From TrEMBL, chains A, B:
It comes from the Eukaryota. This is Thiamine pyrophosphokinase-related protein-like protein. It comes from Lindgomyces ingoldianus.
Amino acid sequence: MSCSNLDLINECDSFPYYQTDPDLYAASISTYFELRVRGHDYALGYILPSVAEIFRNLPNWELDDDDRILTLTGGSTAEERSELVMRTLWAMKGIGHFKVLEKWRDELYPVYGKNRELLFNVERCASPLLGVVTYGVHLTAFVKKDGELKIWTPRRAKTKQTYSGLLDNAVAGGIASGEGPFESLVRECGEEASLEEELVRSKAKACGTVTYFYIRNEKAGGETRLLQPECQYVYDLELPENVIPKPGDDEVEEFYLWTVGEVQDAMARGEFKPNCALVMLDFLIRHGVLTSENEQDYIEIVSRLHRRLEFPTL
Amino acid sequence: MSCSNLDLINECDSFPYYQTDPDLYAASISTYFELRVRGHDYALGYILPSVAEIFRNLPNWELDDDDRILTLTGGSTAEERSELVMRTLWAMKGIGHFKVLEKWRDELYPVYGKNRELLFNVERCASPLLGVVTYGVHLTAFVKKDGELKIWTPRRAKTKQTYSGLLDNAVAGGIASGEGPFESLVRECGEEASLEEELVRSKAKACGTVTYFYIRNEKAGGETRLLQPECQYVYDLELPENVIPKPGDDEVEEFYLWTVGEVQDAMARGEFKPNCALVMLDFLIRHGVLTSENEQDYIEIVSRLHRRLEFPTL
C-alpha cells in the first residue's frame, strides 16, 4: 500500500464539498439532521438519522422530521443547556445506546454560536454523536542538524483507546472548554513530551490552523459514519539538539527523530493517525519540502488543509 | 478608516460561500453564465450576463439561455481553442466593447481542465471577462535584525495601470502560460527587486498557496463585478542585512524596510493592494505574529486565505 498525499487528505477530509460536487453534497446533507439549540436557527452540527432517532420524544429535545432538525429546546443559558445535554447523554450511556459513549472521559468540549458565544458544553466522547466542531492543538517539534531538517515523531501507545500504535505529531490534544489554545499546548507539551514550560512559552510558534470534516471510519472506533468537523491549532517548535522529548504519560510509546524522507515514507505507508498526517502535510508545505514542483496536487491539498466549515467556530 | 483583518479578507475574497450562506450563493450563481469548452461539461469560470451577451451568435460560441452556459464550441486542441479565443477577444477590443481589453498586454494565461490538461490560453487582461482562475507568485522578503522581524514593503508606482500607489509584496507577478511557479518567481525577483538569481534559487522557500475569489471593484479598474478567482503561490525569502531590494523596472516606486507594526498599521489603513494584504496576512499567521490570542477572526481568516475554488486548477 502506498498512499499519495491527496489520499491522506481524502481519508481525513472525507465530507463532500458543495463547490466541486454539489449533487453528492446535497445527497449527503439530505440524510442528516441538523443540530440546533432553541433561539439559534442555524446548524451546529450534522447528526445521523440513527442517532437522531434516539432523541425522539425525550424531554427538552424536539425532532422535526419534515425539516430534519433536532433542537435542544430546554435551557436558556450555557450552564442550563450543558446540564441538559449531559443528563441526556449520561442516560443514553446507561442504556448502552452508543459504543462511543463507553469511552466517557469526563472532559467537556465547547460548542459555540454565531457570535462566538458558548452555547453549551458536551462530554468529549459524545461530540461526534452531535456532529459539532471540536478543537485541538498539534505541535511539530523538529531540529536542524547540519542544515538537515529532522522531525520528532512519536508512536502512540498500543494501549491507547483510539488509533493505537499509529504515528502522531510530537504533541497533540483536545482543547477543553474554558482553556485557550496556547495554554492547552503548554499543558500538553509537559504531559505528553516532558517539555519544559519555559521552553515551550518562549519557542513554540503559532502557525495557523488545519481544518477538515471527517466522517469517522472503523479506525476511529465506535459507530462509523459519525460526523466530526475539526479545527486544529498548529504550532512549530524548533528544539535544541540536546532537548529530547520523552513520553510523560502512558500515551506515547517512543519518540523517533526522523528525516523528512523517513516521515514521508511512513505517511505513504498509512502509518500516521489520519489528522496527524494532515498536520504533517501542512508543516511540509510551510517549510518548503512539498512544493508545486514535486507535488501534483499541491493547490488542492493546501485548500483542503484549511476547509471552511459549515458551522460556527470560535 | 481602520480595516480589521477580516475586512481585508472580505474585500478580496468577496464571492459568497455556499457553506455559510447558501441562499446568497445561489442567488449570485443564478445571475451568471458558466464558461465551458465543448466536450468538457463543467464550469471553467463564471461570466456576467452583460459579457455573455456579446458572445451571442458569434461563430464558434454557443450561448444557452436556459441553462445559462456559454460554450466555446470550436477547436479541438488547446492551440485551436487559444486561437479562436484570441480572435474573438481581439475583435471585441477592436469594437471597443470592454474597458478591460484596452489594457492588452500580449501575455497569455493558461486555463486548465479537470485532468490538469491545458484547455486554452487567454490574453491576460481578458481573463476576468471569462471569469477563469489565474495564477501568480508572491514573495515576502524579510530580515531578522536583533531578533526583530522587518519586512521589505514596496510601494507601486503612481504610473502603474492598476492599483497605482498602493503597497505590494516584495515581488509579485502573474504566471504566464508554460512557465512554472518557481521559474516565474526567479524572473520576477530579478525584474522587480533586482535580486540575484543565485540568492533566490538557494534561499526562497515555497510556503503554500493563497486562494480567493475576487469580485472586481472600482479599485481594479475597468468593468466592475467581473469575477476573478485566483491562486497565488507564496514564497518567503529571508534576506541578509546587506541585500537591499531595488526597483528593477518602473513598477515600483520605493522599498521600505518596515517593522511588523508598521506593516499592520498600513494594512489597517487600507494601503495595501487587496490580494497583497492577504499574502501578508498569511505570512503573519505562519510566522506567529497573528495568533488565536490576538486575532478574534483567526479560524475564519486562515480558512478564507485558502479557499477551495469551484473550478479546475492546475
